[in-house]
């Protein structure tokens, strides 16, 4: 399953999201969701311990000027890779 976080983690139930992630899942943060990957964030420790592969939409990271402050546990991807993830996963959950 592809899980996409579009809202700020401060406005989301990140505990629920993280508890639902499985090893076969991909997790993509975009829009304000990219804030989940900030170093020293209260959310970072739990999300990086999840079994899912972690991605950030690079355009949203750069638009917020936080590229120097994100964890290296996340992979920055383009819109093209985002489309590939949606094709790969027939089931998707948007948070």
TrEMBL record:
GO terms for molecular function: transferase activity. One of its GO terms (cellular component) is sulfurtransferase complex. Heterohexamer, formed by a dimer of trimers. The hexameric TusBCD complex contains 2 copies each of TusB, TusC and TusD. The TusBCD complex interacts with TusE. It comes from the Bacteria. The keyword tRNA processing applies. The keyword Phosphoprotein does not apply. Pfam families: DsrH. This is Protein TusB. One of its GO terms (biological process) is tRNA wobble position uridine thiolation. SUPFAM superfamilies: DsrEFH-like. InterPro entries: DsrEFH-like (IPR027396), Sulphur_relay_TusB (IPR023526), Sulphur_relay_TusB/DsrH (IPR007215). Its main location: cytoplasm. Part of a sulfur-relay system required for 2-thiolation of 5-methylaminomethyl-2-thiouridine (mnm(5)s(2)U) at tRNA wobble positions. The gene is tusB. Coiled coil: none annotated. It is found in: Cytoplasm. Belongs to the DsrH/TusB family. Keywords: Cytoplasm, Transferase, tRNA processing.
């Amino acid at each position: 399953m592809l899980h996409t976080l579009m809202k700020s983690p401060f406005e989301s139930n990140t505990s629920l999201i993280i508890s639902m992630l499985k090893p076969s899942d991909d997790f993509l943060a975009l829009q304000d969701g990219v804030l989940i990957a900030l170093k020293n964030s209260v959310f970072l420790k739990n999300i990086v311990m999840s079994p899912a592969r972690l991605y950030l939409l690079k355009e949203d990271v750069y638009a917020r000027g936080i590229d120097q402050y994100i964890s290296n546990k996340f992979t920055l991807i383009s819109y093209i890779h985002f489309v590939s993830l949606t094709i790969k996963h027939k089931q998707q959950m948007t948070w």
